[in-house]
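Summary of Year 1 activities. Much of the first year was spent building the evaluation harness for sequence design. The harness presents a backbone, in tokenized form, and records the residue chosen at every position. We chose the following record to illustrate the format because it has been used consistently in internal testing since the harness was completed.
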């Protein structure tokens, strides 16, 4: 595996023609290169020059897709003309990235960690460009590999995963990962809906070997799916209850599995 560092991003080739772009530790962005096109999965916080970085990785036309509409995954959209997103989150995008949401990211995540030419005013006010709505089953054809959209409502109504069946990879966004998964947002779906989404991914898990999440270590092993299902099932069935947990996106309860946590709203089971 090769690594590339610049002033903001760290890039690692983690699979065949797949690059993990570490967005300064805040989130994971991915670039998949096919024979004819490349697919960019998420655009991060929008601080670094992502478009410029991509020009050093591929000369192919780039198609952009968001796993969901939360600010830390879409604010780099301003650097691209067209971006694909599930229609449920596209409908709420203005709410997700309004100036108040951006200020939350600025104050609670970025905390003054900027590039030398970063403009806070421009970052707060730049508009997102054209959004193209997509649904479950949509395929991005890159020439020699298809990337298939898998609907995963839970973290938000329009969360999606992306399946690269040829290379046996699953890009899970914020729905699966070795981190605390936040299902307690105002716009999150009931925990039982999240559980059904993870169970659906479990049914297709024979099509992938590794999971590439939107935060923290990547790639990870697919057996974490069973761990999540077991924990969330016990919460939904009333067999256990999490402990009080506060976040800058609201308060909830948290249940800690061995490799991850589930933060949820006890009023939306």
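For this record, the design step produced the sequence shown next.
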């Amino acid at each position: 595996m090769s690594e590339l560092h610049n002033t903001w991003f760290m890039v690692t080739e983690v699979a065949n023609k797949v690059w993990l772009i570490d967005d300064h530790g805040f989130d994971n962005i991915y670039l998949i290169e096919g024979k004819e096109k490349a697919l960019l999965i998420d655009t991060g916080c929008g601080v670094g020059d992502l478009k410029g970085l991509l020009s050093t990785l591929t000369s192919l036309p780039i198609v952009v897709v968001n796993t969901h509409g939360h600010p830390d995954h879409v604010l780099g959209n301003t650097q691209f003309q067209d971006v694909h997103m599930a229609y449920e989150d596209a409908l709420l995008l203005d709410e997700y990235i309004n100036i108040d949401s951006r200020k939350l990211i600025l104050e609670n995540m970025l905390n003054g960690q900027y590039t030398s030419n970063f403009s806070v005013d421009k970052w707060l006010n730049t508009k997102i460009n054209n959004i193209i709505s997509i649904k479950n089953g949509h395929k991005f054809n890159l020439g020699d590999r298809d990337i298939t959209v898998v609907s995963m409502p839970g973290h938000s109504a329009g969360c999606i995963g992306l399946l690269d069946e040829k290379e046996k990879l699953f890009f899970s966004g914020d729905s699966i990962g070795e981190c605390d998964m936040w299902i307690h947002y105002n716009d999150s779906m009931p925990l039982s809906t999240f559980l059904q989404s993870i169970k659906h991914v479990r049914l297709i898990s024979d099509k992938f070997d590794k999971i590439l999440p939107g935060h923290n270590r990547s790639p990870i092993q697919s057996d974490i799916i069973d761990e999540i299902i077991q924990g969330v099932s016990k919460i939904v069935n009333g067999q256990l209850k999490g402990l009080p947990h506060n976040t800058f996106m609201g308060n909830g309860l948290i249940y800690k599995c061995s490799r991850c946590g589930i933060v949820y709203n006890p009023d939306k089971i």
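The CA atoms of residues 7 and 116 lie 9 Å apart. Quantitative recovery figures across the full test set are reported in Table 2.
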